[in-house]
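Let's see one such:

===
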Amino acid sequence: MSEIFTVNPRAPEAEIIVKAVEYLKAGKVIAYPTETFYGLGVDVTNEKAVKRLYDLKRRDYGLPIAILVTDRPMLEEYVDKVADGVTNLIKAFWPGPLTILFPAGRKISKSLTTNTGKIGIRISSHPVATAIVREFGRPITTTSANLSGYPPSLDTKHVIKYFKDKIDCVIDGGESEPSRGSTVVDVAGDTMAIIRDGAISAEKVIKVFQQ
């Protein structure tokens, strides 16, 4: 049976955030609101938890999963390097719906990077998502709370419809606004490539990167 906690989306109660983190520390899967859709979170360093996440979503093991961090120091702890040209993107669009692909560091589960050696990362602008990662002290996954190939979840009713009682902890922060999802860019090489056009237009991202 999933444990469901209702939280104030703008000022999440500390005791609920602590509960969510207890589940993460125990290797469990949580559902939580982000600035785009509801996401599924596990400890990125826990191989068993990551595998369970893939199985829950029925996601192809060859498809990578992105993660959330809280700040630049946490980012640098989990990536191989942050190229100079990426700083402008971070300053302009984080926190927010821009996922940046970096060369993955050693602490990241290889299951999340598949065979790419890259990891997608963003800082969420949603108070609940940010509070969870900050309290946890290390990154969590941020993949949409849906079965692969199906529409993303905008509220917890959708989450429960997809997964029944298979999600250990659901943080209910109300209904999310319809979104195109995060824009995804790859900066792991010498240049930047737009992987997915999303909530932030590709034109805006390119303009900032070229500054």
Remarks:
- The domain at 3-209 is CATH 3.90.870.10 (DHBP synthase).
- The two ends are 51 Å apart (CA to CA).
